[in-house]
Amino acid sequence: YQLLSQKLASTPLSDIDQFLADSKGSLLADKLTASVLFFLAEQKRWQEFNRYYTSGFNSIAMRCRSLLARYHTGDRDALSEGTSIWNEGQSQPNACDPLFQLLQTQNLITPALRWSRFDKAIQNNRLSLARYIQRAMDTQHYNLAELYFQVNNTPKRITNTQAYSDSSIQMQSIIAHGIRKLARTQPKLAWQHWERYEAQRLFAPELATYTKQHIVKYLTRKGYLAEAEQLLSYSHSLRHPQLIESLIRENLESLNWAAVAKNIALLPEALKQTDRWQYWYARSHQMLQTRHIATNANIDVHSIYASLATKRSWYGFLAADIIGNAYTLQDATVSANGRIKNRLANEPLMLQAKELWIIGNHQQARAHWYHALKHFNSEELIAAGELAKEWGWYNSGIVAMISGNLWNHLTLRFPLAYNNEIEQAALNSQLDQTLIYAVARQESAFASAAV
Question: CA 20 to 30 Å from 352, out of 112, 182, 337, 376?
């Protein structure tokens, strides 16, 4: 790989093809293919580029090169796909410049598309990019863009509603942006003026909802909880889960248990059933019952705690403490299939990762290991985890379990690793061994090179 990648200009493509065939599925095959694609694009050898390109190489730079290759080999539809890459609120890689120049010469960047990217750049606070886009606008759009910059710099300008009477799409964007910026410091004022603007014109539904959600967000942050709840009560479309969760957290901080119970009920059902919000729903009703405060629902608090206590989670442990139950660890450790384990132990992908780790090249070892795991099913991941543990590469065994969401395989996820070192550290520090295990597992997952 090293020899081929350093001498691409003088290497026949047949030698590249032979290496790729011999190393199919390996990290090195992917890396060499990426190098070949870069080289062929620089040489404008588009036909050959198309032969090596697959959708797996989906970085923005490589997508731009691929669209160029398709265009230069007769696919005229490729340029229209390039407009979506151009229309982003951030600068794109230099490799996309030739594609973007083609879009310009073919008149595919329309005034509406240019405004769309300008708007996105402002939203992302990429003001230099926004100025660059503005320079190519016609007079009408240029002047609107200048007004946009003024509102962005001084959001309070938006309170002069008469100055923004135009009902164009562009003016809608300017008004909504100004209201959102004003809401960061003066959310009540922003709400007041947004209602005035909404009374005068019809905003696009998505833009209106996004703006009002922004107002709710900052009303909550600034402590105007009654106003935030009032806005949420107006419309189901404003009840974004993150906004409701923020509101509940503010209710918790002020120990307003009635509001906690009421607002948890506003969450989507799937989120409401998570351990976190089931716990706080039970806790809020427990506190209300303790204080003999009537609620609209007859909630069996103990049953909710008992259900939570069967789970291995922070809130499951809290619930277990409250009702006096032992913690449930839900250990579902199973032994690896011996046949699969033997096969993996001799596969090149695994051997490469192991040998790199043995010689101390940890960065490359991890890269090969992650690449191998991408292709494994659950049984193979368990086998790979056991192999890593047997080699003493505990961190990679943990990574294998995480890759497959094998959360209940506790033996590999929480190995009793480095016994001798931890026993000695416990003696030296007068700390409990279990605490040292816990810290090592949490902070680095037993990565021996971590400092």
Answer: 337
